[in-house]
Write a structure and sequence with these properties.
By secondary structure, this protein is α+β, with helices and mostly antiparallel strands. It contains 4 helices and 10 strands. Helix content is 29%, strand content 28%. The strands form 2 sheets. Strands 1-2-3-4-7 form a 5-stranded antiparallel beta sheet. A hairpin with a 2-residue loop joins strand 5 and strand 6. Helix 3 runs antiparallel to helix 4.
Length: 181
């Protein structure tokens, strides 16, 4: 009898009402909340300035799906234009990469590193900077494949990029002169 009385007293002490707010369980998310996650921000399609730092200038083209399809960087010491084609799929040991600036073709040799995008660089010259500024479209060819032509960067972006490229070229020339002394 005592056992029954003890069990009854314990059950009565538990009760159905919570003693504090901690005991209240939150309502589960509605199925609608689980189906509609917050939107992921996506870069708009087109050219954008990526950054300045160790590189004199860097611009990139995004298809608006996240990440850059192509990046162009002007670097100094030695002065060079680097092309990085993240949208291209590496093909075996293929090294032929061509940058087409309007009607001018700039042959490049791709650097193929495991896990890295297809990339190459070429010495930076005043003629190359002028071709970048004059181009109405930019296209990349890799092996036998050509991407669709991309529109040239907007004029203000290209002016800024060309100015940075000229500075990189001049920094590289100044460094070479210091080494000759």
């Amino acid at each position: 009898m005592r056992k029954i009385l003890c069990v009854a007293l314990l059950l009565a002490a538990c009760g159905n009402e919570p003693d504090s707010e901690e005991a209240i369980t939150p309502e589960p998310e509605s199925s609608q909340d689980r189906l509609d996650p917050a939107p992921i921000p996506v870069e708009p399609e087109g050219w954008t300035m990526i950054g300045i730092g160790a590189v004199a200038e860097r611009i990139g083209y995004s298809f608006g799906t996240g990440g850059m399809a192509m990046e162009l960087s002007c670097l100094s010491d030695p002065a060079r234009l680097e092309v990085e084609a993240t949208a291209l799929t590496r093909v075996g040991s293929e090294e032929r990469l061509v940058l087409r600036l309007g009607s001018r073709q700039v042959p490049l040799t791709a650097v193929l590193e495991d896990g890295a995008p297809v990339a190459a660089d070429v010495p930076l010259t005043a003629d190359l900077i002028a071709a970048l500024e004059a181009a109405n479209e930019i296209t990349l060819g890799y092996g036998a494949t050509w991407n669709d032509p991309l529109p040239a960067p907007p004029e203000d972006l290209m002016d800024s990029f060309a100015t940075g490229c000229s500075a990189a070229m001049n920094d590289g020339a100044a460094e070479a002169q210091r080494e000759d002394l």
